Amino acid sequence: MRLAAVVLCLIFVCIYFKHVHQKNQVDEPDYDEADLDFLKIRDSEIATTVKLMRHLDSSRAKKGDIVLNFQGKTDPSEEIDRAPLPLFTRVNESLLNGPTYKALADVLTIFREDVHETEHWSEEQLKKIDHFLELMMSTNPFKIAWEFIRSRDLAPRDSEHMKSLLFTIWFGLYSRAEHSLGSSGFEHVFAGEKRDSIVEGQHFWVRFYQLEKAGKINYKGYIVARPELSATIHYDWGKCKKAIGGFLVGTSPEFDFSLFTLCFLTKRGSKRCRFSLEKFPFGVTSFKIQRRPYIATTYPVSL
């Protein structure tokens, strides 16, 4: 089983490099909606794993670190701004000085917002990705997630092969716009992307907060509110619109990265991960790119 996991990882890496060097064959990606029911992983197993990850997430916000102002309720089709004020009233900035937050911030600088622009990463930028992945793998939430997916023979057991797998599924480049390798799972989920007049992805609270603080996001109201836990919202990023978007609130980079990795490898497709945070039911919906191992999207939902 261990050998099979290593071979699977090497296949993913080979596919990635083959794809990167065949830019003349770039196509629009299709989401693979096939589920992973054949793995027979129970919701209760995921819930138990996530509960332990949450308990050991020492980098997450403490009570009072974040104050939200949800304001008016809206819906995805509404154009009226129901929220004259920002969503984030207060964030304890010292929280963002933690090593995993800083490493994530460094990685976010390498991406181009427009999916029509091809990504070109320098050696220095690749080092930022490598440092981020090593840091993620050293955290308790990731160790818990990794232990579970290893126990189901869904990931390599050694660190180097696991890091290669993470690089492939999260940073493998593909196209969301014709003839440009301008997207990856990580950029889509953690940074967010612009395609024509719409916002795609952007499912990490710190990214939203920092863009809003810089005056680049206009929050227009909430669709589902879970105070101190999550926000499902409607907003504009510059001239681009996000009809419905959302993220967990106050979680650390390592928790979200580990949670999304866990759910992508165990419960993607038409069936989602299910778990609870502070007794509220949540899920994570994940899809991969069809015929490729890359993350297309993965995002939290309130159930």
Automatic annotation (TrEMBL):
<comment type="similarity">
    <text>Belongs to the ENDOU family.</text>
</comment>
<keyword id="KW-0479">Metal-binding</keyword>
<protein>
    <submittedName>
        <fullName>Poly(U) specific endoribonuclease</fullName>
    </submittedName>
</protein>
<keyword id="KW-0732">Signal</keyword>
<dbReference type="GO" id="GO:0016787">
    <property type="term" value="F:hydrolase activity"/>
</dbReference>
<comment type="subunit">
    <text>Monomer.</text>
</comment>
<dbReference type="GO" id="GO:0046872">
    <property type="term" value="F:metal ion binding"/>
</dbReference>
<dbReference type="GO" id="GO:0003723">
    <property type="term" value="F:RNA binding"/>
</dbReference>
<keyword id="KW-0456">Lyase</keyword>
<keyword id="KW-0540">Nuclease</keyword>
<keyword id="KW-0694">RNA-binding</keyword>
<dbReference type="InterPro" id="IPR039787">
    <property type="entry name" value="ENDOU"/>
</dbReference>
<keyword id="KW-0255">Endonuclease</keyword>
<keyword id="KW-0378">Hydrolase</keyword>
<dbReference type="InterPro" id="IPR018998">
    <property type="entry name" value="EndoU_C"/>
</dbReference>
<feature type="domain" description="EndoU">
    <location>
        <begin position="42"/>
        <end position="303"/>
    </location>
</feature>
<dbReference type="GO" id="GO:0016829">
    <property type="term" value="F:lyase activity"/>
</dbReference>
<dbReference type="GO" id="GO:0004521">
    <property type="term" value="F:RNA endonuclease activity"/>
</dbReference>
<dbReference type="Pfam" id="PF09412">
    <property type="entry name" value="XendoU"/>
</dbReference>
<keyword id="KW-0464">Manganese</keyword>
<feature type="signal peptide">
    <location>
        <begin position="1"/>
        <end position="22"/>
    </location>
</feature>
<dbReference type="InterPro" id="IPR037227">
    <property type="entry name" value="EndoU-like"/>
</dbReference>
